[in-house]
Amino acid sequence: MLVLILLSFALIPYHNFWTILLNWVIWAIFTLDYVARLVRAEDKKKYIKTHPFQLIAIIPAYGLFRAARIVSLFHLLRLTAMGNRYLTPLYNFLKTNGLNRFILIFLLLVIFIPVPMVLIEPEIHDYPDALWWAIVTATTVGYGDIIPVTPIGRILASIMMLVGIGFIGMITSTIMSYASGKKKRFSSSDKIAHITKAIDQIEELDEKEIAVLESYLAMKKKDE
User: Fold this and answer.
1) Whole-number Å distance between alpha carbons of 108 and 97
2) Whole-angstrom Cα distance, residue 162 to residue 53?
């Protein structure tokens, strides 16, 4: 869904048969997604009221919007409406273990390290070649089509390789941490639901029993 949202946004400048067809396919997928979630919702009126942008984003008004010359606004609305649901989990994932900062450092190195490589390496003649070398080196692919021969170039290459290995390891550990964190939160919610259900089954609690529960909850809060 996230890829479709970005693709829908990227199709804004193009107006031909295939882009229009692709837009309608994306619209159909968004509509099916909305309808499926609406059907699964227990309170359908509440779902419609709390998701107005998702409903607006699937209104098939391409002709009207194009006539009014606000097609771009429609796509931006779609990106905002549908993207909030899918970009928020992605943002939370990137914040896990500080992955967002590591990605920023990784991108900065990939962008800026090629600059001195153009100046010091005889095999690298322009920035696109240097950028290609940086990406290949950082991802540990190592095609070997461009090889640094100067001492400084080899030092920079070593930095790129170490950062690339760390980047792959960081992504793996972040996926595991994010998954385990979600599982832990889910299991805690299940336990709380089980406890409250057990309490509901008790017809009546006297003051002494309520005091015991309150003291236990206070103790748990203090331990945290």
Assistant:
1) 19
2) 44
